[in-house]
Amino acid sequence: MDADHWRRIASDALALLLAASCPGCDRGGTLLCDRCRMQLRADPHEVRTPHGLAVHAALRYEGVPARAIRRLKEDGATLLARPLGAALGAVLRPRAGDALIVPVPTSRASFRRRGYRVPDLLVRRAGLEAHRNLASARLTDDQRGLGRAGRARNVAGSMRATAHGRGGVVIVDDVVTTGATLDEAARALSAAGFTPVCAVALASTPRIRDTVNSSLTDSDMAVRGD
Ligand SMILES: [Zn+2]
């Protein structure tokens, strides 16, 4: 390739960078500033699904992490999958052991809209292998705006395992809200012979959302769209 070609690539890359802004603080000219990058370091904590499956979450879905995750999920900022994948990996790697890492399936509509599967992408960016052993068995309503019971009803029976097998599995999702999606994934994998060991999520939403005085906005709730 000639020098002109490389100059064009460099100038395109520079234009992209100048048009970028940090998802955490909106500072221009950077895909993620150093200060906000620090806030994407894993802060491991454990929550439980309604059926009692342990979920190890890397980040809290608020502030800088929430804005970075929304930009990855809704604005196509796939470069953010690297720092976010690193946070996921810090929690996932020590728990995976011999278990298969199985991401929750992405609905066909979400995949068409984004062109990528967020949980799978995060696992790969963490340097780990994602096994797509789950598929959507039927369409579900949008989880947005549904409460705990509604979400559980909505996802019940919505997944199927793509193959039978044995051994431990660790289920991965991007954002855990009520945990209903992870329970459904565990049900489908158990029915196919696997043993769900635990789940790992990139981020957990604050449990306060279940109270009347929830401080979360509608757009915070809107992220768990599939
Ligand atoms: Zn920033």
Automatic annotation (TrEMBL):
This is ComF family protein. Transmembrane segments: none annotated. It comes from the Bacteria. Belongs to the ComF/GntX family. It holds the Pfam family Pribosyltran. Residues 168-205 form the Phosphoribosyltransferase domain. Coiled coil: none annotated. InterPro entries: ComF/GntX_DNA_util-trans, PRTase-like, PRTase_dom. It comes from Microbacterium esteraromaticum.
